[in-house]
Design a protein that fits this description.
The complex is a heterodimer.
Chain A (H helix, E strand, L loop, with lengths): L3 E12 L2 E12 L3 E5 L6 H9 L6 E6 L2 E2 L10 E4 L11 H11 L4 H14 L15 H13 L5 E5 L7 H18 L3 E5 L2 H7 L2 E6 L2 E6 L1 H6 L4 H6 L5 E6 L4 E4 L2 E4 L7 E7 L4 E4 L9 E9 L3 E8 L5 E6 L9 E6 L4 E4 L2
Parallel strand pairs in A: 3-8, 3-9, 6-7, 7-8
Antiparallel strand pairs in A: 1-2, 1-4, 4-5, 9-10, 11-12, 11-14, 12-13, 14-20, 15-19, 16-17, 16-19, 17-18
Chain B lengths: L2 H34 L4 H6 L1 H34 L5 H13 L2 H12 L4 H6 L8 H25 L2 H9 L4 H29 L3 H6 L7 H11 L3 H28 L18 H31 E2 L2 E2 L2 H5 L14 H27 L5 H10 L2 H4 L2 H11 L1 E2 L2 E2 L6 H24 L2 H9 L4 H30 L4 H4 L7 H9 L4 H26 L11
Antiparallel strand pairs in B: 1-2, 3-4
The chains are: A alpha+beta, B mainly alpha.
Chain lengths: 347, 542
């Protein structure tokens, strides 16, 4: 069992009557990368600020390496925080920004210089020490902010929407770079993001937050395969969600008609999720149990097409379909459901 | 209470103590003494003389404000949006009158429109017996407030807003009226009350140019206190002025807060263009003419009069300043220069410490209390300086604070008018420092004090210098309070000028002009030094 570096218990923060964090319990083990995922305004940034000691707690504890941090001011917590909009010091150059944390720890000048150069190499900006920060591009600022946060060797590195402001291409490249970097350095990372792709690519473990509460914790695969509830499923982008009742015969009664469920699904009312890959298209009428549907719209998704179907009964359905088999808009199709891609969620 | 709350309280304690002891207590002491005398407050208030003075004070302040706006608003546009050679220098030049001591302004306008003045010599025109001299001198003095407050915002309004309106079908004027004008209203509404405040409490200018016929409340308070020893009336008039100023500041605060709405702002460098078309060239020409006639001509005449003697031009008046023989003073008038510089330097240090602590405490906008204190800090600007000065004499003459014969009284009184400027200059800059920068420093291991030193200080260093410059200039020019408490053997420059002007004789007049010129040069040099290090973000004076 790896050592637990960060542990929060019952963490509660209220802003003017609004509860930003509601009794949040969280554990981050050493060398682990945990991503907190949730919609904007869901309390993710507040969580980081609470751990850093930038926000007063209304209840609960923050423990770092087993030590309660109550009464420990921010500057003695030895954590790193990369702000969403970087917050580089405008009056200092790149080198001055990165050296800041080292100066605060009275690291000798020569060593500071060496360390700054090392970090600039690490983030791919070698020799940028003397550049002004306002002359940097968004991606470069992001790298400097990362180097600045890493420089003092924080016990825990926290990232607030680390790639939020960058364009898509750069973001996808940096996610991979960051993951490799954290692996190599053995850094313990707590990141927050609203982008599930980013979270799944970066994290060992994902924590989904909803309105200040933890909705689900698990590895990216676990969360993707078995969302804890309808909220998490919707947040992950799943649209085929209906109220259903699971019967004893291994099928569920749904507005679309009977849908087969995986073995061992407990009978009774539930929310039923059908992944788009589990919605198979057949010739109209080929499967008498499945509904007929009309293709409403097609969205091209690179390697597949996402079809928006209007079934004759029940709400709209999304189906993933290989490129060459995709029917045209307005075409009539039959629908069958694939048991393996059906998940029964608690009501 | 939170730790931040305690820190704020600790920061506020010295300014509160300073204002309590050196402002509230003397003012309260003198008004209380005045009101105790057979309680004729109601009588004074309903007296025809009082109403006449109050009426004139309000009228001339309103007229001065209107005149200033009419002359300066086109100037605000020209400085905000047009590019022309020498603009930076001219921008500094228009600010000189604002930091000039009021007695210098009075002397300059006397030299222009007064008896034996330039217009009198050329065409036999004298304005010093009418109200126009006062209004023009007030416009001279306040021109910069409007140009800098309104122009500062105008320069940063995103022109694309107007372009968006144009694309949607609005004509050039309609776009200006529907997009730019509403955006400017808050800044005009912030500048106008300040102009009104400064002209409402005007003392030196009205004292010199008003003659026996025109008196503002402040002049009347001086006359009642110093010449007639009529303390009850002075006390009532002080309270009357205080009440009007409190209403004014309250309104100003409300407007300023409303003005903090979100506007689309951009870098001023992106909005300036070379003038194009007859209208823009016309505005530029008109503005340059106003600056030449209203701002530069009086100063030029002042210098000319200081050099002109019975035997043609020369430095005779300046030479006369170095001897005590004229009998106006116990010492040579020239010594006033040294006195003034010394007093102003001490006053600047006091104002910086007091105002700096207050600004640091008010950096975080929070709660009614902070807003209330914010407004309170402006009160010394609007309170009768004469009352403060006389209050010093009667309140600070007993142990434990027996300062009556101490030189420190003068700088303390001068610091009172410096503090509001320090706060006005520092506060916007401190508030513009993103709190998350301080947090970033804290996360990287900087203690709160260290974070302040590493993050705030480098960003506000220039603002501190600018604040120091303004505090120095207004301390140098302070007249109403200083005239009471300064020792006869150590006069300041404005006091010496006023005394020389109050005496008959060509030599006294010439010496007053010479001394005013010296004072003007000191102020102008301070300002030019400031202008070269003005922080980018503060575009307002007050």
């Amino acid at each position: 069992m790896p050592k637990i570096l960060l542990e929060t218990e019952g963490l509660t923060v209220r802003y003017q009557g609004r509860t930003a964090l509601d009794s949040v319990g969280l554990r981050v083990a050493e060398h682990e990368t945990v991503c907190v995922l949730g919609p904007s305004g869901g309390g993710k940034s507040t969580l980081l600020r609470a751990v850093a000691g930038l926000t007063d707690l209304d209840a609960g504890t923050v423990r770092l390496a087993g030590r309660d941090q109550a009464g420990v001011p921010t500057h003695r917590r030895e954590v790193g925080l990369m702000f969403q909009d970087h917050q580089l010091f405008p009056q200092r150059d790149v080198g001055g920004n990165i050296a800041f944390g080292l100066r605060m720890r009275r690291v000798p000048r020569a060593e500071t210089g060496r360390r700054v150069a090392e970090l600039l190499d690490l983030v791919g900006l070698p020799g940028a020490q003397r550049r002004a920060v306002d002359a940097l591009s968004g991606g470069e600022q992001q790298r400097v902010a990362l180097a600045r946060a890493l420089a003092p060797g924080p016990r825990l590195l926290m990232l607030d929407e680390p790639l939020g402001q960058l364009d898509r291409d750069l973001r996808e490249r940096l996610v991979v770079e960051l993951r490799q970097l954290f692996r190599r350095l053995g850094t313990t990372v707590l990141a927050v993001t609203h982008d599930q792709g980013e979270a799944f690519a970066l994290a060992d473990r994902v924590v989904v937050m909803r309105e200040g509460r933890v909705a689900q914790t698990g590895t990216p695969v676990e969360v993707w395969r078995r969302p804890a509830d309808a909220f998490v499923a919707r947040f992950l982008g799943f649209r085929n969600l209906v109220r259903a009742t699971v019967g004893a015969d291994g099928t569920a009664r749904t507005p679309w008609g009977p849908v087969p469920v995986p073995e061992g699904t407990p009978p009774g009312p539930c929310r039923l999720l059908v992944r788009p890959s589990g919605v198979r298209l057949t010739a109209p009428g080929a499967d008498p149990a499945g509904p007929r549907a009309t293709v409403g719209a097609r969205t091209f998704r690179g390697d597949h097409v996402l079809l928006h179907l209007d079934p004759e009964r029940g709400p709209a359905l999304e189906a993933a379909c290989p490129l060459r088999d995709a029917p045209a808009e307005g075409e009539a199709v039959g629908v069958a459901f694939d048991r393996a891609d059906v998940v029964a969620l608690p009501e | 209470m939170t730790r931040a709350g305690w820190t704020r309280l600790a920061l506020l304690a010295p300014p509160v103590a300073f204002l309590g002891v050196f402002f509230a207590w003397p003012v309260a002491a003198i008004t209380a003494r005045g009101l105790r005398v057979d309680g004729g407050a109601a009588e004074v208030l309903t007296d025809a003389d009082t109403l006449r003075v109050l009426g004139f004070t309000l009228w001339q302040a309103a007229a001065s404000t209107a005149l200033t706006l009419a002359l300066a608003l086109p100037g605000a546009y020209v400085f905000a949006r047009l590019a022309f050679p020498g603009k930076r220098l001219l921008h500094a030049v228009v600010t000189v009158p604002f930091v000039l001591p009021t007695v210098v302004t009075g002397a300059a306008f006397l030299a222009l429109v007064g008896r034996g003045g330039l217009l009198d010599e050329l065409w036999g025109v004298r304005l010093d017996t009418g109200v126009w001299a006062i209004l023009l001198a007030h416009a001279f003095f306040n021109y910069a407030i409007v140009v800098r407050t309104v122009g500062g915002l105008w320069a940063r309004l995103d022109p694309r807003q107007e372009e968006a309106a144009r694309v949607l079908g609005a004509g050039r004027f309609a776009a200006w009226r529907t997009v730019t004008l509403p955006a400017l209203v808050p800044s005009v509404a912030a500048a106008a009350p300040m102009v009104f405040l400064f002209t409402f409490t005007s003392f030196g200018i009205v004292q010199i140019l008003g003659g026996p016929r025109y008196a503002t409340l402040e002049v009347e308070i001086y006359r009642r206190t110093a010449q007639l020893l009529d303390l009850p009336t002075a006390a009532v008039l002080t309270l009357l002025q205080f009440a009007v100023v409190a209403v004014l500041l309250g309104a100003h605060g409300r407007i300023a807060r409303r003005g903090e709405s979100a506007l689309a702002l951009v870098d001023p460098a992106r909005t300036v263009r070379r003038p194009r078309g007859a209208a823009q060239w016309g505005l530029l020409g008109g503005t340059l003419t106003v600056i030449a006639l209203l701002l530069l001509l009086p100063l030029a005449v002042l210098v000319e009069r200081s050099l002109s003697g019975p035997d043609g031009y020369g430095f005779a008046h300046y030479r006369a300043l170095t001897s005590a023989e004229g009998g106006t003073f116990l010492v040579a008038p020239w010594e006033a220069v040294g006195n003034s510089l010394r007093f102003a330097a001490v006053a600047t240090v006091v104002a910086l410490v007091v105002g700096g602590l207050a600004a640091a405490a008010l950096t975080r906008r929070a709660g009614r209390f902070a807003r209330g204190f914010d407004a309170l800090l402006m009160l010394p600007l609007g309170t009768s300086a004469v009352t403060v000065g006389f209050g010093f004499l009667i309140a600070l003459d007993e142990p434990p604070l027996d300062l009556r014969s101490s030189w420190i009284l003068v700088p303390l009184a001068q610091a009172l008018v410096g503090v509001p400027f320090v706060v006005r200059v520092m506060l916007p800059v401190l508030r513009a420092v993103d709190d998350r920068l301080r947090q970033a420093a804290a996360v990287l291991g900087a203690s709160p004090l260290r974070a302040w030193r590493e993050v705030d200080l480098p960003l506000v260093r220039r603002a501190v210098l600018v604040a120091a410059g303004f505090a120095f200039a207004v301390s140098l020019g302070e007249f109403g309070a200083t005239v009471f408490i300064v020792r006869p053997d150590a006069p300041t420059l404005p006091v010496a000028v006023a005394r020389l002007l109050g005496r008959a004789g060509e030599l006294n007049y010439g010496q007053a002009m010479a001394l005013s010129t010296v004072l003007m040069l000191v102020c102008a040099l301070t300002l030019v030094a400031l202008e070269s290090l003005r922080p980018l973000r503060t575009t307002e004076l007050v």
